[in-house]
């Protein structure tokens, strides 16, 4: 059902291989250019905040979906393990299942990696791409503004406080305790560049749990094989317009990861969203939507067929 106060939404399940169904939602004018939102690891499509989705739906048919082993999509990793790279096939399965030949893609975190895989392997399906909170699937070194060459392995790593939180075992202490654990996680991911609104994230996680139907913690994506992800040469040859969002407070892939990403991927440019970390609080919805909409509007007309 549509969320009160949002544009009318249509929910549908699509097939993605034997025994796997993916929950999808479409919102916005049926004839508008399609824009597919690809969320991060263990995150449902509901993780895209409603105001941001509505802002994008003013000019696009916006699609969001639940990855395998999240939300209302099939949870089957323990019976049928898959690779992280296989999740890029689910991006295409969503487009195929909804009858969409080409779409603008917006990927966050793991979703940004999956978007890069689609750019590299199936560029004919992509009108434009926006990459948020992610790193380049490339071994190309980074060239700083002052010159020189920095190997990928020497770029800044994940913040220690994030790694410490990810290393903690998660016990089921009930729904309310799980919500508070997730809020604490968002506090760390937010990076401290903007005031932290705990109630915003509580409400977000209550929607996620209501959507999913339970508060169990998914671990499939953390256990999946992450080999076969590099696409150095294909990304360097890319001709699809790409926007890289630089978040100055990003604790997972901090600057200069966005700048490296823009160097490693052809036809890419960088835009900074002030104060942003590895999260989507209300303060970034407006500038982020404006940047994405300007980028999709500028995609060459020849790409829109």
What proportion of the residues is helical, as a percent range? 25-40%
- Helix/strand/pairing category: alpha/beta
CA-based gyration radius: 18 Å
Low-confidence segments: 1-6
Question: Helical stretch count?
Answer: 10
Q: What string gives the helices and strands in order? A: EEEHEHEHEHHHHHEHEH
Average pLDDT score: 95
Distance between the termini: 32 Å
Task: Give the overall silhouette.
Answer: globular
- The main sheet orders its strands as 1-2-4-3-5-6-7-8
Give the DSSP E fraction (strand runs of 2 or more residues).
15-25%
Could you explain how this protein is built, in words?
This protein is of the alpha/beta class and 305 residues long. Helix 9 links the parallel strand 7 and strand 8. It contains 10 helices and 8 strands. Helix 1 packs parallel to helix 10, helix 2 crosses helix 3 and helix 5 crosses helix 6.
Index terms:
single chain, 8 strands, 15% strand, globular, disordered N terminus
Helix and strand topology:
Layout: E1 9-15, E2 21-27, E3 34-38, H1 50-57, E4 61-65, H2 86-97, E5 103-108, H3 110-121, E6 126-132, H4 160-167, H5 175-190, H6 198-212, H7 220-223, H8 232-236, E7 242-246, H9 257-264, E8 268-272, H10 282-298
Parallel strand pairs: 3-4, 3-5, 5-6, 6-7, 7-8
Antiparallel strand pairs: 1-2, 2-4
Summarize the structure.
The chain is an alpha/beta fold and 305 residues long.
């Amino acid at each position: 059902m549509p969320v009160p106060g949002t544009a009318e939404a249509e929910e549908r399940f699509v097939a993605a291989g034997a025994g796997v169904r993916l929950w999808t939602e479409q919102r916005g004018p049926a004839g508008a250019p399609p824009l597919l939102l690809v969320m991060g690891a263990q995150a449902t499509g509901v993780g895209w905040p409603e105001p941001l989705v509505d802002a994008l739906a003013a000019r696009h048919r916006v699609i969001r979906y639940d990855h395998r082993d999240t939300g209302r999509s099939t949870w089957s990793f323990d019976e049928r393990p898959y690779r992280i790279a296989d999740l890029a096939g689910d991006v295409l399965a969503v487009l195929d299942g909804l009858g969409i030949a080409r779409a603008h893609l917006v990927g966050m975190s793991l979703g940004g990696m999956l978007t890069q895989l689609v750019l590299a392997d199936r560029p004919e399906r992509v009108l434009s791409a926006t990459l948020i909170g992610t790193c380049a699937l490339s071994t190309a070194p980074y060239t700083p503004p002052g010159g020189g060459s920095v190997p990928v392995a020497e770029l800044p790593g994940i913040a220690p406080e994030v790694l410490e939180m990810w290393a903690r075992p998660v016990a089921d202490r009930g729904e309310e305790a799980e919500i508070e654990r997730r809020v604490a996680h968002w506090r760390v991911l937010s990076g401290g560049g903007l005031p932290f609104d705990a109630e915003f994230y509580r409400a977000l996680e209550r929607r996620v749990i209501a959507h999913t139907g339970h508060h169990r913690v998914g671990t499939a994506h953390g256990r999946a094989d992450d080999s076969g992800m590099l696409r150095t040469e294909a990304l360097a040859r890319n001709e699809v317009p790409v926007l890289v969002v630089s978040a100055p407070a990003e604790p997972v892939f901090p600057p200069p990861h966005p700048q490296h990403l823009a160097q490693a991927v052809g036809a890419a440019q960088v835009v900074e969203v002030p104060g942003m970390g590895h999260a989507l609080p209300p303060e970034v919805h407006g500038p982020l939507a404006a940047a994405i909409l300007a980028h999709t509007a500028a995609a060459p007309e020849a790409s829109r067929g």
